[in-house]
Amino acid sequence: MKLHILLNIHRLSQRELSLKTGIRFETINKYTNNSYKYISNEHLNTLCEFFNCSISDLIEHIKDS
Hints:
Helix content: 55-70%
Low-confidence stretches: none
Number of domains: 1
Strand content: under 5%
Number of helices: 5
């Protein structure tokens, strides 16, 4: 998840993003720290709309070695 990069680019805190998107702070924190178990489609849509970006700007797949 590249949410931490978008937060830095837009100079937002996790708490500010939570308040502006309605996504719980704890969930934003898990996404930012890559400690989530799954990502809901609703959250992906909300984050893409908020940052005006595509899904590839939010997440990337890295193959296991």
